[in-house]
């Protein structure tokens, strides 16, 4: 089973994948800027192609060792829905549409789930912020604390990088990870003991977050 979550953004899309006992984090940053509708489509397709490449690898190969699996893995994906009304709503709607359409058309992912665009903000509102750090820093802080706990249990963390130097987790990847935890809880992936510990680190997971299963009905054109 492969679980994945996407925090879509043109500046840097965060992709987090859990395969067996390995969390892989992939930052996807297409070159250029959105100066036209054509740019939005082109850059969205680049992001979608990168997501497809990562997930298709996990479909066939073990993420940790790279060996081919006996059978294709089942992939379940959660993605944050685009905002309805904001300055960036139109472009993020394009990005989300291209991502979802690409995933559906390839039939790569077995199940797709979505959450509303304010989910991370709602979760993090329950976390004490005595240091008065930014929203992005808060996501990083709690994500790193939970990852540290999971690593103590034997989970592995891989930060995909294009450069040789060591890098840190980005806030986009951190938020993709926080979204992934929602899917893992929905799937009852963790034991009650482990989830209780995660909730003690991030009290936002006490909240009842609605997870929507995406259902696409294809209609034939007369």
Radius of gyration: 17 Å
Largest sheet: 7 strands, mixed
The amount of beta strand, in percent, is 15-25%
Distance between termini? 39 Å
Q: How many domains make up the 3D coordinates?
A: 1
CATH superfamily: Ribonuclease H-like superfamily/Ribonuclease H
Supply the helix-strand structural class. Answer: alpha/beta
Number of strands: 7
Q: Largest beta sheet: what is the strand line-up? A: 6-3-2-1-4-5-7
Q: Would you list the SSEs in sequence order as H and E?
A: EEEHEHEHHEHHE
CATH domain topology? Nucleotidyltransferase, domain 5
Give the CATH architecture.
2-Layer Sandwich
* Low-confidence blocks of residues: none
Shape: globular
DSSP helical segment count: 6
Estimated helix fraction? 40-55%
Name of the CATH class: Alpha Beta
Mean pLDDT: 88
Can you walk me through this structure?
The structure is a single chain. The chain is of the alpha/beta class and 222 residues long. It has one domain: 2-Layer Sandwich (Nucleotidyltransferase, domain 5). It is built from six helices and seven strands; from the N terminus they run βββαβαβααβααβ. A seven-stranded mixed β-sheet has the order 6-3-2-1-4-5-7, with helices on both faces. Strand 4, helix 2 and strand 5 form a beta-alpha-beta unit. Helix 1 packs parallel to helix 2. The N and C termini lie far apart (39 Å). The model has no long low-confidence stretch (mean pLDDT 88).
